[in-house]
Amino acid sequence: MDFQLKTLSIAQAANEKADVLIVLLAAGTTTSKDALSVLVAQARTAGDLPDKAGKLLALYRAAGVAAPRVLLAPLGDGGPAAVRTAVLAAVNAAKGSNPKRMAIVFAGAVDAAGLGSAVLAAADASYVYTETKSKPEPRSLRQLSLGVPDAAALREAFDQATATVAGIELAKEWGNRPGNHCTPTMLAQAAKELAELPNVKCEVLGPKEVAKLGMGAFAAVAQGSAEPLRFIVLRYHGAPKDQAPVVLVGKGITFDTGGVSLKPAAEMDEMKFDMCGAASVLGVFRALGDIQPAINVVGLVPTCENMNDGRAIKPGDVVTSMSGQTIEVLNTDAEGRLILCDALTYAKRFAPSAVIDIATLTGACVVALGGVRSGLFSGDDALAEALEAAGEASQDRCWRMPLDEDYAEGLKSNFADVANVAGRAGGAVTAAKFLQRFASDYPWAHLDIAGTAWKSGAAKGSTGRPVGLLLNYLLAQSRKGGAAAKSSGKTQKAGTSRSRK
Ligand code: BES
Ligand code: MN
Ligand code: ZN
Questions:
Q1: Sign of the dihedral defined by the CA atoms of residues 141, 174, 234, 348, in that order
Q2: pLDDT at residue 492 in the model
Q3: Does pLDDT of 484 surpass 60?
Q4: Model confidence pLDDT, tens digit, residues 60-109
Q5: Which ligand is nearest to the Cα of residue 331, counting in written order?
Q6: Mutate to test the pocket of ligand 1, among 273, 328, 333 (most ligand atoms within 8 A of CB)
Q7: Which ligand ends up closest to the CA of 421?
Q8: Atom of ligand 1 nearest to the CA of 331
Q9: Is residue 12 pLDDT above 60, yes or no?
């Protein structure tokens, strides 16, 4: 889609040639004598203009307005969350008429966060999946203009928002593709294509290289599948070479049957989304390539299928991870942590300032937090707080969960150094405790996106989360410069009430 940023007053917006014009109204917007302002004032006086974000007043062929359809969308408190609510409601309402050109104008002041929120919401509501439809209904929306009082002042925010949209849409696209259209090999090919972007490089390892590295846990998950595993290494270089990178690790299970510990049939199709962590890493790199921020980032994606087969791992099998720790695989459905633990060990070689893994890891996290907030786990307060702040700022929220050592109790094994599952209780936390054993040498955070990466039911589809959160974090780090990123490991406030060690 073609996004444009324009300087538009409400009077000028009336002349915009568009199929639909959405007017975002802050509370108490001052009204003047132009056609739209008069309409707004009349509607307000008559009590027909709602004030809650998400409510709309539709006008058709209003006198003095070029666009045939106008939606007046109040902004409630005017904050970025209200902008998102208002734009989602307006774009969804406008979709019925299959508009090709849409204009969204802010009738009043708007800041970078408000504009970014509008761009992301409009893109979110107009995304259409087409890849595996024989007669796809194409995304009818071709052009979206955003009108603000001063376009020049918001240009940078606008460019970042459109780059973020490209990243989110790449993540949605790969998340939505069915397992037979998104194999580990295809995912690796998509990553390689990102290396066409400036300062992005990609390297892909196969089964032989992974075996040579000693990634016995990752290889064990892949061994029941006819599809060969891939280990994707992406790099973005935007800062001096000696600046420590942030490493992102994305779970890339392209289909999770559960293996021998087979999942029930109902909704098993949704396990095609089990590579949404990986897709979010690809999406972040897509956006970094556009934005070119001053930061170094490494993306690691272990990707394979979790299948049931004569060669598949069995409950009770003991495998040796790259770290040397042996793992008793008590449940083959707890495969995400097995592929991630080897990637976390591999991450050490980059001497990272921080490592963040992103994974659709546990059904327990869906029970705990639903689809609203991703689970955040970290023993490093500075890193956790930066990620929490990034989540709030991007409306891609997360919630910090505990990591008390007591939660690791159930991972004890009589036959290996550690078991891959504990009991049912606290399943999201025990999974994080397992990962933490492999992330000891750098500041680490884990995002469990099992509840937030996709929607079920009628609106079934990938959300592209947490690309927004991750980009917000990385851009904030790039603004702080390398020094702040490097020191994040030393600002741990152990013993404070917020410490989760
Ligand atoms: N990919 C699943 C987690 C999942 C399940 C995400 C349902 C979203 C919805 C993961 O590999 C898994 O199967 N986890 C198990 C762990 C258990 C065996 C300890 C789970 O959550 O049931
Ligand atoms: Mn599983
Ligand atoms: Zn899984």
A1: positive
A2: 38
A3: no
A4: 999 999 999 999 999 999 999 999 999 999 999 999 899 999 999 999 99
A5: 1
A6: 333
A7: 1
A8: 18
A9: yes
Mean pLDDT of 6-22: 96
**What is the structure's pLDDT at 27?**
83
Beta bridge partners of 354: 246
Mean pLDDT of the chain: 95
Q: What is the pLDDT of residues 23-38, one digit of tens each?
A: 999 987 666 889 999 9
Tokens 């991750």 sit at which residue?
470
Atom of ligand 1 nearest to the CA of 360: 6
| Strand ranges inside 275-341, DSSP E | 296-306, 317-320, 326-329
Pairing of strands 69-74, 57-60: antiparallel
Q: How many CB atoms lie within 10 A of CB 496?
A: 8
- Predicted local confidence at residue 138, as pLDDT: 72
- pLDDT level of residue 192 (50, 70, 90 thresholds): very high
- CATH placement of domain 177-487: 3.40.630.10
With 0.85 as the threshold, say if the pTM is over it: yes
Q: Which of 29-43, 52-66, 225-239, 282-296 has the lowest mean pLDDT?
A: 29-43
For residue 119, give every residue at least 6 positions away whose Cβ sits within 8 Å of its Cβ, in sequence order, or none. Answer: 3, 146, 158, 161, 162, 164, 165
Q: Domain-by-domain residue ranges, the chain?
A: 2-150, 177-487
Per-residue DSSP letter, 315: T
Q: Look up tokens 């439809």; give the residue.
A: 133
Pick the CATH number of 2-150 from 3.40.50.11720, 3.40.220.10, 3.30.930.10, 1.10.357.10: 3.40.220.10
- Write out residues with Cβ below 6 Å of ligand 1: 256, 274, 331, 333-336, 360-364, 366, 421, 427, 450
Q: Provide the residue count of the chain.
A: 501
Told to judge if 373 belongs to the known catalytic residues of this protein, a careful annotator would answer no
Partner residues linked to 25 by β-bridges: 74, 107
At residue 483 the predicted structure's pLDDT band, cuts being 50, 70 and 90, is: very low
CA 334 to ligand 1 centroid distance, Å: 6
State the DSSP string of 201-250: EEEEE-HHHHHHHT-HHHHHHHTT-SSPPEEEEEEEE-S-TTSPPEEEEE
Cα–Cα distance list, 42 to 38, 49, 217, 438 (Å): 6, 9, 67, 64
Q: 201 an active-site residue?
A: no
Q: Which helix (H) or strand (E) holds 116?
A: helix 112-126
